[in-house]
Structures are given as C-alpha cells and as structure tokens.
Amino acid sequence: MFGNICLIFLQMVVILGVSPFVVGLIRKVKAWLQCRKGPSVFQPYADLRKIFCKEAVIPSTTSWIFTITPYILFGSTLAAGLLVPAFFADMPLGFAGNIIALVYLLALGTFFLILAGLDAGSAFGGMGSSREALVASVTEPAMILSIFAIGLTAGSTNLNTIVHRTALFQGVTTDPAPHLLALGALFIVALAETGRVPVDNPATHLELTMIHEAMILDYSGRYLALVEWAASMKLLVFLSLLVNIFAPWGIAVEATAGAMTLGLVAYLVKVSALAVVIGILECTVAKLRLFRLSELLGAAFILALLAVIFFYMFRG
Amino acid sequence: MTILFLSILFSYLGGIFLPLCFPNREFIQNTMAHGLASVACLLGLVLGYEGLTDPEPWHIALSSNIPLLELSLRLDRLAAFFLVMISLVGLATSVYALGYVTEYYGKVSMGTLGSLYNGFLLSMTLVVLADNAFFFLILWELMSVTSYFLVVTEHEKNEVRYAGLFYLVMTHIGTAFIILTFLVLFQNAESFSFEAFRQSGHTVPERLGTVVFLAALIGFGTKAGIVPLHVWLPYAHPTAPSHVSALMSGVMVKTAIYGLIRVYFDFLDGEFPWWWGVVVLVVGTVSALLGVMYALMQHDLKKLLAYSSVENIGIILMGIGAGMIFSAYGFPELAALGIIAGLYHTLNHAVFKSLLFLGAGSLLYATHTRNMEEYGGLLKRMPWTGLFFLIGAVAISALPPTNGFVSEWLIFQNLFLAYQIPDILLDILLPIAAAMLALSGGLALACFAKAFGISFLALPRGSHAKHAQETPIPMRIGLGGLAVMCLVLGMGPIFVIPVLDQVSAEFVGVSVAERILTMDGWALTTANFASVSMPALAIMLLALSGVGLLFAHLLGGKLQSRSYKTWGCGLNVTSRMEYTATGFAQPIKRMFSTVYQPTIKLESEMLEESRYFAKRKHFDSYITPFFQQYLYEPVVNIFLRMSDRLRNMTVAHELNLYLGYVFAALLVVLLLVR
Questions:
Q1: Spatial separation of the C-alpha atoms in residues B147 and B359, rounded to whole Å
Q2: Phi first, then psi: what are they for B73, rounded to 5°?
C-alpha cells in the first residue's frame, strides 16, 4: 500500500515536472532550426513561476465557470497523466480507467475550457471555443479506432496490460503492420488534440488564426499558469501514450529501484526524442486551413481502419 | 402487491378526476393533479423495487366481456425496471410541474391539463405492465392520444396544431405496424396473451419471424424516433408544456425500447439470424450520428433536446443491436453485456434528458422564449437552474464522473469485444460503429457546450434574459433531484449493474454481474479487456483539482485578483460581440456540408444613385430538412394527388350513386371474408 502511494506520488512528480521541459525543448528545437539561439529549455518553469505570482484580472462578464475551469482542467489532465504508465508498467491506478476513460477525462477538460472561452463574452473566446469544439469532435473517430487497433494487438485496452505485453514482446511481434499503422493514426490525433502544427499553432500572435490560445485569451495570473501547465501536461500525456504503447522498451516491469531508474531514464530519452520530432515537424510543415482538417483526420481514420483490417487478415 | 398496485391506480385516477371537480380553482387543481401524481410515482417506485427483488413475477388478470381482451397485468423484472424509470422521472416532473404550470394559469384549463397529465402517466405505467396484446394496444393508443392532447395544449397557435397533427399521423403509422407484429404472433400462438406469445415464440417460422422483426422495428421505431422515422419528434416534443416534453422525451420513447426488447428477446426468445442485430446496430448508428448532427444546428433549445433524443435512442439501440448479434452467434455473456449497456443508457438518458428538458422549461418560464440567441448570462441570474443544467450537459456529453460516461463506456467495450466473432465483416463493422459512436459523442460535447455556453454564460443577448429571475422552489427541487441522480448513477454502477443483470438474465439465461463488477464492486471489467472505476475517477478528479489549488497557493501566495471588463480591442464589450449559437456551430456545419446541404441566400437592394450602397439587405440561411423533403413530401404528394382524383371520381350529386358505392363496397368485403 505504502509502495503504491509512493509510486503514484512519483508518477505525479514526473508528469508535473517533465511537462514544462517538453514544451521548452520543442521551442528550443524550433529556435535552432530557425537559426535563433532561443530561450533555455527551462524557461517554461520560470514563466510558470512568474505567472503564478501575478495578479489575476478576471473579466467582469464572467461567472464561476471561468474561475473553476483552470482547476478542473488541471485536475482532469493530471488524472489522465496518472493513468498512463510512464516509467513503470504496472501503475497502481491502472484499474481506475482504461484508455477510453483517459480520452474522456481529457474531454472533460476540453468541455470546460470551451465554456470558459465563451464566458468572457469576447468574439475571440467564442471563436476559439467554436473551433476547439470542431477539432475535439472530429478527432474522436480516428482516436477510438486507433485505440481499438492497439487493443486488438495487445489483447486489452488497459494501458498497463498493453504496455506490459508490448514491453515483453507478447502479441505485437508476429506482425508489426497494424501496430505501425495505428501509431501513425494516433500521432496525427495527438497533434490535433494538443493543438500543434498543422492543426493549431501554439506560437501564433494573430487572434484570427488561434484555436487554443484564443480560448484562454482572457486568463491571467494563477489561472493562466494552471491552464498553461495543464496544456503542457496534456502534450506529455499524449507523448507518453505514443512512446509507451508503441515502444515501451526500457520501461520497468519489475518494482525494483534499478529497473525504475533505468525506466525513468529511458522514458526521458524517448519523450525528448519525440519532442524533437514534433519540433522539426512544426518548422517544416505549414499550418492547415481549419476546413482542410477533415482531410488530415480522415487520413488518420483510414490508417486506423487499415490497422484493424490488417490485424484480422494476418490473424489467419 | 395487489394493494400497492391498486393504490397507484387510484392515485392516478384521483389525479384524473378530482381536478375536474373544482372548475376555476386553479391552485387546488394544480396541487391535486400534481400532488396525486407525485404520490402515485412514489408508490410506483416501491412497486418497481418489489418487482425487481421478488423472485416470482406478480400477475393479475380480470376477464372482460369483450372477446380476445383480457385485462391482465404482469410485473416481471423488465417491466419493473421500466416502471422504476417512469416513476422516477414522473416524480421529478410532477414536483416540477407544481411550480411550472402556474405559468399557464388563466391561459389553459388547469383541470384538463392536470387530468391529461395523470392519464398520460397512468397509461405509460400500464403499458409496461400489460400482459395481453389487445390490452397493450389499447393502452398504447391511450398513451398516444393523451400525449397528443398534451402536445396541443396551446392549440391556438398554428404551428402547435401542425405539430400535433404530424405526431398523430406518425404515431398511428407506428401503431399499425405494431398491430401487424401482434397479428403475426397471434396467428402463431392463437391467443393474444403475452404468455402464449412467449410459449410459442420459437415456433414462428423464419419468414414470418422476419415480418415480426421488421414490423416491430418500424412500429416501435416510430415511437422511439429512429432515423428516418424521427421527423415528428422535433415538432411534437418541444411543443408540449416542458414537464410533458420531459416525460415524452425522457420516458415515452423508452416504452418503444421496452416493446422491442419484449418482442425480440422475450417473445422470440432471442433466437434470430445474425443480420437482425446488424440491422438494429446500423439503424442505431445512423440515428445516433444524424440525431446529434441535426441537434447541433438548432437554436431552439427544446428542438435541440428533441433531436438529441434521436441520438440517444440510437446509442441505446447500438447496445441492444450488439447484444442481438452476440446472442445470434452464441455468446450469451456478451449478449447480456450489450443488453445491460443498452438498459443502463436507457435509464441514464431518461434522467438527464428529462433534467435538461425541465431546465429548458425553466428558461422558458424565466425568459418566455425558446430561442437560444436571446439567452445569455443566465448563470448569474438563475444560479441553481444553471448548475443543474450544467450537470445534465456534462452527463449527456458522456463525461466522467457522470452516468452518461458509464453506459457509453460499456457500449464501447461491448462493440470492441466483437473480435471474438468469427466473421470478418462483423469484426470490422462493429469497430466502425464504435468509431461513429465516438464521433457522435464528440459532436454531443460540442452541442451541449453550445447549449450551456450560449444560454448561461457571458452577457444577456435579449431584454428578457436580462431581467430573468430564478424559478420557484418546486421547479428547482425537480431539477436538483434529477441532477443528483445523474451523479449517483454515475458513481454507483455497483448498485445498478446487478439489477440490470437480473433483468437481462431473464432472457439471456446467464448472469454476468459478478464478472463485470470486480474489486468488490469498485471497478467495472469486461472480459479482461478493459476496466474502469467510477468512484476512483471521481476521487482522482477531486483530489487532483485540489492539487491545482495547492500549487496556486504555494507558488502564488494569497489570491490577488481584480475584476475588469473583457478586452475587446479597445471597445467596450457588448452582447453583440459575443458568439451566437449559429456562429458557434458554423464550422461544423461547413465541415459536414454534405449532410446538411446548407443554403445561404443574400439579397441586396442597392440605392438607385449608387452601385455601392445598399438600401436593404436580406440574409437567409437554412439547412435542408433532408428526410422531409426527399422522403416524406413525395409520399404525401402522391397520397394527396390520389385522393384528389378519387374525390373527383366519387363526388356525385345523387344520393343513389353513394348508396351504390356502399353496396359495392359491402359486396367486396363479403366476397373477401366468405
């Protein structure tokens, strides 16, 4: 029992602690590719600390929805973070929710963020909310189908089981095709869900092109800090999903200190590598027009469907 | 139990007749009608509980003088489950109505309204108890007619009469198909009693079985509102007084689900070819998707809710359809899981849809309009209504930790478990259905973020919304009770699953509750494939939001905040700058334009002196009502043309010719039945 509580606590520290680093790393990679020096990878930590201490300006049109949303968003994203195995394959909270529960936990945060965007009453907030609602709903089918493809190859939709079996080469090794196709689909979904290029540009300064940033335009002070932190945690949750579902090797499958340390190092390396990939992608790919999103997500859906079909064809 | 049943019957009968005895004493009529209805619903809950726990079904029969008709009632587990659902929602709407109908004082006769309301509740209660096909049909018809009269409460309005007529026609088309279902079963069983149907169900030849299947699907489907038979629903449900809308959308459509389960699993004994399940699943999927898509485009709040009922009926049918497929392939445990998931969603939808309809009624009460574009900023003016509506919106969007999430999660898992079926077509079809369920879930989230966000947040867009006030206490009690139920049903699968398991075990023959509920009931598990624990999720959400609060205090110290106007590019933000309901849904409308076929008309009239200054501009935007335009209107037109021609042929100016027609008709009938 005590060990389990320690594990949960450790996982919480990892998710909370590593997430700003990932954002900083992506920014650094982008800066390098744009021939800038760029801020330190640890800049997001300093930013968070500073924004936490600032006075919060609350728009007078808003209701309690506006002030409660950052906490709900933070709580639901962190809860999702505790369901994903990061450095240890058998998380004690694994029983609390499978991958579908994780998706819907994140959706809870999105729902409240959409409401908060509408609450301030400015056109920008409404615009962000409306677009976020579109993106959130059209990513769902590809996400669920790719999850199902993964579930088929691993024989479970419980994250612990998926990671455990894949780490020990059970199930996926016979044929990697469905696994890889599902990876492609889930990667596109992850980009859309976390508001990265080509779906949304987190670095944009023009309100008319914003999605996520437009919704949180009226936040300041500690509320902004919580929302930003939650956004970086959401990114880390998806990165952890991608690396640990598809390449869990190195993760600790036994509860020993050595294995855990190795798992932690492997996790950091893998997540950083994927963050570098996203950084490179953001510099080389143009943002899509909002209404061409359906093509990208349609492609993700087809990839996931192919993954399912391939699984059945090669099953025999 | 007979005494309990009789007290329910007499409470309702009292509710029907007593209000009529006090003409023009509106307060007394209101209190009597809705007070007695509340008592009857409370007793109904007790009776339902007894029915769910008693090992043997309760049965009562009275013979009548009319041939083939036997007034028999039977309370088995399935009936008891629906009885609990009807009584639970009925209790909330009756309490709510105590406050809500004051709006109608002096406008409509309170005695008629109250007595029809009680009659409607009574007929629904008896429909699920009826144990004789003839009796069932009479009660079904009674339910349709009383609800028709309730729909046309405000009959002086043109569109209300249109909605009523539409409803009446559609519901009778449905009844015709239900009659066909029962006639085929009667031919086989040679009796109208359900017991005989049950005994002889497995002897129905396959071809006739198919007729029963399709006729029941169309007949009950019309009442349930499956696509494409859903067209009447968005007219009729919103037109009725809101507490009746809540009953119609929350409960009445579920009697159709009851009928389908009764016919497929009880009478036909769950023995059917696999494609029946596929048909139900596909119909469910299409209904779920199109229902929510049309709901998104509505800015009449009650119409939006009515379309969303189409979606949720679709989701329920997806669960039941999957159960039928598994049943046909000989996986009784998975079939049981499908039925449990479908029934769970039935109950959940009854609770949150009636909550939302009552919430919409409160908004109507406070603002006198159903148009969402005139709402806004109501959360500050109606804090309780807003909170309860929010809980309903979260629940219907299937977000944890509410009840909508549990049932959709179960349906997802059930569809995923299709990989055990040795048929590659179904192996791929069911996951695609799951993906479509995910899409409709995502769109439902968008739809209810819109419904709540546009109605309750930011600044009021109309003067009515600006001066809105919180509703009377009985209305808030009705809403609050249902909101609490949303959370209770969400946290407590441990209590609900065993009950549903017993209901499904009656038909499938296996009990799966112990295998679904693991870890002493704390978690739900399906075939080692997935698990979720609602209490754990709720605790995590609460605790981790607390962690956020802790961080805010540790890093930021004491909260320093200041209220200031929203930044509007240097202008003062007014309600005209807010996003509207139409604007919010516009990106979705554009992305799915193939489905919506939107038409935009822009007419401008220019000044004579100039080509650049417009004198008048007219903008019109609407989506094509696809099914009405391409499916219903052609049929209606053919009928009208035929009846026109017939009229020309038959309108004679002599009595003798008419008599001749009558004679000829008689002759034909005699020849036929010879």
A1: 20
A2: -125, 150
Going by DSSP bridges, is the β-strand pair B561-564/A56-59 parallel, antiparallel, or unpaired? parallel
Determine the number of helices (DSSP H) and then strands (DSSP E) in chain B: 28, 8
Comparing alpha-carbon positions, the chain A residue that sits nearest to B593 is: A291
Q: Which position has the token pair 């950052």?
A: A70
Put simply, the answer to whether B536 touches A97 (Cβ < 8 Å) is: yes
Q: Are B575 and B463 in contact (CB under 8 A)?
A: no
Helix B383-396 to helix B424-456 angle (10° resolution) is: 170
Cα–Cα distance, B650 to B648 (Å, whole number)? 6
Cα-Cα-Cα-Cα torsion B493, B498, B501, B506, nearest 10 degrees, comes to -150
For residue A108, give the DSSP letter.
H
In chain B, where are the structural domains located?
1-181+242-251, 317-550, 627-673
3-state secondary structure of B674: coil
Nearest C-alpha of chain B: how many angstroms from A81? 11
Nearest CA in chain A to B402: A108
Question: How many Cβ atoms are within 10 Å of A295's Cβ, its own excluded?
Answer: 11
DSSP state, residue A59: E
Residues A277, A242: contact at Cβ < 8 Å? no
Closest by CA position to B313, among listed B290, B279, B333: B290
Count of Cβ atoms closer than 10 Å to residue B562 Cβ: 11
Chain B residue with minimum CA distance to A301: B435
Instruction: Cite the beta strand spans of A177-268 per DSSP E.
Output: none
Tens-digit pLDDT profile for residues A34-90: 999 999 999 999 999 999 999 999 999 999 999 999 999 999 999 999 999 999 888
Cβ atoms of B490 and B537 closer than 8 Å: no
Chain length of chain A? 316
- Put simply, whether A143 touches B (Cβ < 8 Å) is yes
Subunit contact B531:A158, Cβ cutoff 8 A: yes
The neighbour count for residue A199, using CB atoms within 10 Å, is 23
Q: Residues near B442 by Cβ (< 8 Å), separated by ≥ 6? A: A107, A136, A137, A138, A139, A140, A141
Is there a domain that residue A41 lies in?
no
Number of domains in chain A: 1
Q: Which residues of B133-160 are buried (b: 16+ CB within 10 A; e: fewer)?
A: bbbbbbbbbbbbbbbbbbbbbeeeeeeb
Domain annotation covers residue A164: yes
Peptide bond into B228 cis (omega under 30): yes
**Looking at residue A195, what DSSP letter applies?**
T
Residue A42 falls inside a structural domain: no
The pLDDT value recorded for residue B372 is: 92
Q: Give the pair of three-digit tokens for residue B402.
A: 């509410």
Provide the residue type at B305 as one letter: L
Tens-place pLDDT, residues A164-204: 888 877 755 567 888 889 999 999 999 999 999 888 988 88
Q: Quickly list H helices, B130-271.
A: 133-151, 158-189, 194-200, 206-224, 233-239, 242-247, 253-261
What's the domain range around A251? 2-9+21-27+81-100+133-205+216-315
Residues B519-553 as b/e (b if ≥16 CB within 10 A, e otherwise) read eebbbbbbbebbbbbbbbbbebbeebbebbbebbe
Cβ-based neighbours of B424, under 8 Å, separated by 6 or more: A312
Of A49, A79, A133, the CB nearest to B446: A133
All residues of chain A having their beta carbon less than 8 Å from the beta carbon of residue B398 are 104
Residue A60 lies in a domain: no
Reply yes or no on whether the pLDDT at A316 is more than 60.
no
Phi and psi torsions of B602, nearest 5°: -130, 110
pLDDT, tens digit, for every residue of A100-151?
999 999 999 999 999 999 999 899 999 999 999 999 999 999 999 998 888 8
Contacts of A52 in chain B (CB under 8 A): 551-552, 555-556
